[in-house]
Amino acid sequence: MALTKTQKEKIIEDLKEKIEKQKITIFVNFTGLKVTDLFELRKKLKLANCQLKVAKKTLLNLVLKDYNAALFREVAKLKGQMAVIFGFKETISPAKITYQFSLENPNLKILGGYFEERFRESGEIITLAQLPTRDELLARLVRDVSALISNFVNILEGNLKGLIFILSAIKK
Predict the structure, then answer these.
(1) Which tens digits make up the pLDDT trace of 73-114?
(2) 20 to 30 Å CA-CA from 153: which of 29, 56, 137, 161?
């Protein structure tokens, strides 16, 4: 069913608003993906304060042409049924969720993304998705610092034990 002009204008305004607020935008091809799988992806993204939006390429191109001409040219080259994933708080979690979902569902293909004012190829988005999250990095930092402190304490204990052993040997 064809969209009316007011419906199209509403979609364009919604896309403009989301593009202005985004920290990362990921473009995916969902050709052959079941509707239930698409809803599952939407749920996972919503938990991470992200949103998946399916829009016609012509409407998306109208919004992108006004937003960023270079991005418009890159997105115009992309093929297939396109959906856009917007990340509003983080750059890594939307990429991670999308990448993990694409591993489980081969019909979802990452086409590229836009963050830090540049269009990124799918390989860069996948690399970004494989990076550890901020929480994982903080956990590693805490683990490493506590290991250093623990090792330092063990070294100091070893010196004291050695001193006690020598003094007890002298005493005998």
Answers:
(1) 787 788 878 888 988 888 788 889 999 999 998 888 888 888
(2) 137
